[in-house]
Amino acid sequence: MSVLVGDVNQDGAQDVLVANYCGSKSCGMIDVMWGKGDGTFHSSQGRYPTGGAYPRTIAFADVNHDGNLDVLVANEESPLDDVEGSIGVLKGKRNGTFEKPVVLDSGGLGAKSVSVGYDVNHDGFHDILVANSNNVAVILGRGDGRFRAPVTYETGGNSIAVADFNGDGNPDLVVAGDSLFVRLGNGNGTFQDKQVIGAGGSFVTTTDMNQDGKTDLLVASYGQSTLSVYFGKGDGTFRPPAVYSTGAQSATSVAVAEINHDGNPDVLVTSICAHGPCPDGGPGQISVFFGNRDGSLQPALVLGTGGNEAWSVGAADMDGDNKNDAVVANASGNVAILLNNIPPRAETQTTLVGDKNPCNLGDTVTFTSTVTSASGRIVSGTVTFWNRGKKMGVEPLSNGEAIFQWTFISGGHKEISAVYSGDYNNLSSVSPTWIENAKPFPVPTQVHVTSSVNPSHPGQAVTFTATVTNDWGTIPDGELVTFVDVSTRTTLGVVPLVNATASITTTALTEVRTHVIRATYAGDPTYSKRSGNIHQVVE
Prior knowledge:
mainly beta, six-stranded mixed β-sheet, four-stranded antiparallel β-sheet, 43 strands, elongated
């Protein structure tokens, strides 16, 4: 059973299509529900054969380039064979109705999932990719609604999705089945050897969860009842998954949409029932994961779907209020429209302070992030602490504060920020950057030498002043600076620092030449030894 949302009759209102999977070869049909734009539907509905039996998934594309949405259906069985899968192509008309299906060979046994709308060989035409139970099939389009014979690749699965994973401009594919694997596209309609990247699943889709310009994967696991997020590296590989419990039993499908008005992708996951095992079905569930700015997800909000065994979910604005709603197909024979009633969320302000600045290497600094809401409401959620784009840790909010400790083992200026996740009532926000100065040991110093007169005459009194600076603190008075005429290897004197400066007046420069005068700060356990030079011309 699969649900699909789109405006098939081009009236500006979202329509719903449902592929009905049932226990008889004769009842594989697509129902079309034409929306009114207010969350309700016209009383008349369309029903169309799928061109096969046991339809699993449906997809939209304009395969014949006539401006109308066409529907493609993955059927587990073809009209004449109980084993071979088929693809039904239902060409759309402008009024939202469809022609009789054109039946294509799926290229394998038991077609499970279909993806269309991608041009895998760059000829300008939509192509079809199918996950069969025993293989993956690529069916190239001719641009007029007809297609070439399928080309197959070993290993099939339950679900297929297409995107560019390595940034080369060629569509790649990912399949979730007994394992999760990727095949990178060559750009000519062929694909490379599979790369297994993780455990299998019941459903896979793609998006950019952390908004870094790289495609990520979202995988639902029927057996584990989890949602896994694989962040893409942009080179065709992925990071180890972040795994989230759905809070329900037997996850079936995934949709991505912006639900809570914060600009971050949110995730909807359907499940068979609330708690398992549920062999005879049960009340269907939908898990709503609100996304954070970094692509992580908040704990699932679990809702009922109004029917038994929720198998498929889509998201669109069904009632014209500019908010995405959820559309769920239940195995009990009904479609649930869950209208989005989340109120506008309040702006928040996040601040960050450290209890010790500057700090020494090895010091533990306590950072306190405070989050306030413009509405005055209580804020909940988490705060993520970052150092120049590297995550330091995550802490929960308690009474509007999140406290985090960090021990610095390297010196330098640390750019620390705090990112509030947001919650049901409040938007996320980011603190101003806190510059934490971690002193290296010893602290680097600089010595700058000046002359009271340059050039000078032989035997003329000249005053040299050395100023010792650093980026971390005040050098103690009384520490020594030695002045040397390097050219004549003559020590001019040793002078204590006062307010980080030391001066000496000398008449010892009698030779007509350029003298290199060096001032050397002796240093101490905290501040490093350093020298500075000046070229004194005597003429």
